[in-house]
């Protein structure tokens, strides 16, 4: 596909507003200075000065940055061609921007930003998977009713994987599994006998014995690697959250609620995530999973990339591909196609342009809440405990995450992970129990909850609650 042909050229560049100028937002602003068909000169953060500092950091001249505290100031600055920094999306939502890019990673704030964007008839690029995991399909429906789209973004794994899955389906390939590698490789140094991941290093003198799969059973080697590397985290909430977005877009499902998450070298993935009948771990086809990419220090990273495993339906063709270096399983039954990259805001513009110029999402054609990401207690949690979300991975201490079938919120239903985040427990939750919606003391006026109830009404037939976002008559 030639991208120059794909996007219309006879119009002005697409104007955008980025909300959240952290790592992703900063990279989006930086690339926005270079994308010919897009502008990124409106930035919002919890404080306008933070947004201004991010604009300055990517090379915008300070004299061209206007800190705006009112809609009138923002309108004047926009008309003058300046860059705008604001502390509230409401200050700039009436500017002639076509796409709001929500990248705060904050569930409640992100829900408000999504509502504001949809009510203002803007397309919404939803970078915040935390929001998407709770209300993504509902937002997509509400936006579609107003002639707008909600889209994930290329640069993050969900959009890239949805694209790869749809590519495989378009070609008539039978999908066995799809997924991504974890954010941080497992790097084994044979000389020192040490294993490193995400800045943590452990001594694993026994790991050399399980470095190669050889002809041994997959389950045996995977279990041995997990045991030897037990001191390193092998599952992360963001991985499950991202794959939930893919599940809701494609209908693919996990083989187990917390994934197999094997430690595997890249050439081994077609063996490890094959069906059990072919020597792998999976009970069926069209499964989602994540693997921890195992490599030596001198080997290339999988870079948190995405993959599909497909049936090698024509052995001669796949034998030819294997000879060219494509990973194929030992049995010859399964082959892997992969994209070893996700470039964050650097490549997000393709999804932004797709929304603004074509009125299309890079996500699912009709996303539905097939799954929910929920929290299970790993310790006894007392009543009154605040389920504080923190850290780079936006985790909740004392819990782990699982993917379960999506359902309408009731008192006994498992609470979506990022709906529970930052809530206080109204009653104790015992270790091993899923945190239920009825366990939460929900704060008054939660926009995330209101939008989730609206999503439930759209997809599960719950009683329609009056909300601030309404479909037009």
Give the % helix.
Answer: 25-40%
Number of helices: 15
Query: Mind summarizing the main beta sheet?
Result: 9 strands, mixed
Structural class: alpha/beta
- Low-confidence runs (pLDDT<50, min 5 residues)? 462-473
Rounded mean pLDDT score:
96
Question: Which assembly state applies to the chains in this document?
Answer: single chain
Coarse morphology: globular
Radius of gyration: 23 Å
**How many individual β-strands?**
22
How many angstroms separate the termini?
Answer: 38 Å
Strand content: 15-25%
Brief digest:
The protein is an alpha/beta fold. The chain contains 15 helices and 22 strands.
What does this protein structure show overall?
The protein has 473 residues and is of the alpha/beta class. The chain is built from 15 helices and 22 strands. Strands 8, 9, 10, 11, 12, 13, 14, 15 and 16 form a nine-stranded mixed sheet that branches. α6 (107-119) runs parallel beside α7, α7 (129-144) packs parallel to α10 and α8 packs parallel to α10. It is globular. The chain starts with a helix and ends in a 13-residue tail after the last helix. 51% of the residues are buried.
């Amino acid at each position: 596909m030639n991208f120059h042909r794909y996007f219309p050229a006879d119009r002005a560049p697409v104007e955008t507003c980025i909300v959240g100028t952290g790592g992703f937002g900063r990279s989006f602003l930086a690339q926005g200075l270079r994308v010919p068909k897009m502008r990124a000169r409106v930035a919002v953060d919890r404080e306008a000065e933070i947004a201004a500092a991010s604009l300055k950091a990517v090379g915008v001249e300070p004299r061209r940055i206007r800190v705006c505290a009112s809609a009138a100031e923002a309108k004047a600055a926009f008309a003058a061609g300046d860059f705008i920094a604001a502390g509230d999306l409401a200050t700039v939502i009436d500017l002639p921007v076509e796409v709001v890019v929500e990248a705060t990673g904050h569930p409640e704030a992100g829900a408000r930003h999504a509502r504001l964007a949809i009510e203002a008839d803007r397309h919404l690029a939803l970078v915040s998977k935390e929001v998407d995991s709770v209300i993504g399909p509902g937002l997509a429906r509400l936006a579609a009713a107003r002639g707008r789209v909600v889209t994930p973004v290329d640069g993050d794994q969900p959009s890239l994987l949805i694209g790869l899955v749809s590519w495989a389906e378009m070609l008539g390939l039978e999908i066995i599994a799809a997924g991504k590698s974890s954010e941080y490789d497992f790097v084994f140094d044979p000389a020192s006998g040490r294993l490193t991941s995400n800045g943590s290093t452990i001594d694993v003198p026994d790991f050399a014995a399980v470095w190669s799969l050889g002809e041994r059973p997959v389950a045996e080697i995977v279990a041995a690697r997990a045991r030897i590397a037990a001191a390193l985290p092998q599952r992360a909430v963001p991985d499950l959250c991202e794959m939930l977005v893919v599940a809701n877009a494609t209908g693919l499902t996990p083989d187990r609620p917390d994934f197999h998450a094997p430690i595997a070298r890249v050439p081994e993935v077609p063996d490890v995530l094959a069906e059990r009948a072919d020597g792998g771990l999976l009970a069926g086809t069209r499964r989602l999973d994540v693997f921890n990419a195992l490599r030596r220090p001198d080997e290339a990273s999988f870079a948190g990339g995405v993959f599909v495993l497909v049936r090698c339906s024509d052995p001669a063709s796949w034998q030819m591909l294997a000879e060219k270096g494509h990973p194929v399983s030992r049995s010859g039954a399964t082959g892997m196609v992969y994209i070893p990259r996700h470039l964050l805001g650097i490549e997000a513009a393709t999804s932004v342009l797709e929304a603004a110029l074509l009125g299309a999402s890079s996500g699912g054609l009709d996303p539905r809440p097939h799954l929910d990401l929920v929290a299970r207690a790993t310790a006894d949690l007392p009543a009154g405990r605040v389920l504080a979300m923190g850290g780079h991975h936006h985790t909740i201490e004392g819990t782990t995450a699982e993917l379960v079938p999506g359902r309408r919120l009731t008192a006994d239903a498992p609470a979506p992970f990022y709906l529970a985040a930052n809530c206080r427990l109204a009653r104790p939750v015992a270790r091993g129990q899923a945190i239920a919606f009825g366990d939460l003391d929900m704060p008054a006026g939660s926009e995330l909850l209101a939008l989730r109830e609206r999503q439930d009404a759209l997809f599960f037939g719950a009683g329609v609650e009056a909300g601030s976002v309404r479909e037009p008559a």
